[in-house]
Amino acid sequence: MRTRLYHHPIFAEHLTGAGHPERPERMGAVAAALEAEAFQHLDRAEAPEGSLEAIYRCHPEDYVRKVATTIPDEGLKRVDNDTVVSPKSFTAALHGVGAATAAVDGVISGDCDNAFVAARPPGHHAERKTAMGFCLFNNAAIAARHAQSAHGLGRVAIIDWDVHHGNGTQDIFWSDPSVMYCSTHQMPLYPGTGARDETGNGNIVNAPLSAGDGSDAFRDAFRSRIMPALNDFHPDLVIISAGFDAHHRDPLANLMLTEADFDWATAELMEIADRTCEGRLVSLLEGGYDLHALAVSTTAHVKRLMTG
């Protein structure tokens, strides 16, 4: 498989302050993991800066201006209790958008079979008009809209296995049956959304799990709820919101997964993509706050993308 990695040094320049879990060292952990010999054939591309036009498909212009004017000239500034920005944060977020849209372009054009975007800040908590949960712009949602607007795709599926529910992605596509959003996540947990009865226009599939559930419950949720919905939806593109904070080492939750679970879920989604959309799959890094767990989970995920 031709797997392309999108990355940029600017992602490490989004500063969040001492003790913040969403920290620049996350990028170092991912980069070090993907320098191993197993990844010598990984295609690597520098993330371009994304366009405002791409962002406006998911976030209104006045919201984007608000984010831009929130960025401090020096030091740190809080957007909310969890979300911190610094002088390079807006530029980092733009390159995150650019990486997501470039990954879609690469996969749809056939330049690569699939792609992994190692970017920060993450995106899946960003609602249409609200930055929250470490997130400014919703990269997965922007990627889906780019696939539809720039490439004419009809149906896009976003599968989110981050331990926290992607309220932002759900908010953006709540009434849009052309985009299916499927999520496994721990509940109750931040942000408090993601109940099974939150179904949107029939295009939202939530499979909440309880603290301590572990591998068997996670895989059963995939088999019983996520995969049947995807089979029926028959997507033209598969996007993964790949958060690795459901790993048992992660400090922010308690789902007790292992890197083998992410490997398994990747293979399941690749099989769906192979069957429905010529293998077109884009994966975007979301959470993952224990550096060792992030490294081994990323290793398992990208190895599977490369080998099928």
Summarize the structure.
This protein has nine helices and ten strands. The chain has helices at 25-33, 52-56, 61-70, 89-109, 139-151, 167-173, 214-233, 259-276, 291-307, and strands at 3-7, 43-46, 77-78, 84-85, 114-117, 156-160, 179-186, 204-209, 237-242, 281-285.
Descriptive overview:
With 308 residues, the chain is of the alpha/beta class. It has helices at residues 25-33, 52-56, 61-70, 89-109, 139-151, 167-173, 214-233, 259-276, 291-307, and strands at 3-7, 43-46, 77-78, 84-85, 114-117, 156-160, 179-186, 204-209, 237-242, 281-285. The strands form two sheets. The chain has an eight-stranded parallel beta sheet, sandwiched between helices. Strands 3-4 form a two-stranded antiparallel ribbon. It is globular and about 50 Å long. The protein starts with a strand and ends with a helix. The mean pLDDT is 98.
Taking Cα atoms only, what radius of gyration do you get, to the nearest Å? 17 Å
Sequence stretches where pLDDT stays below 50 over 5 or more residues? none
Describe the global form.
Answer: globular
Q: First CA to last CA: what distance? A: 7 Å
Briefly note the structural class of the backbone: alpha/beta
Strand order of the largest sheet: 2-1-5-10-9-6-7-8
Work out the strand percent: 15-25%
- Residue share in helix: 25-40%
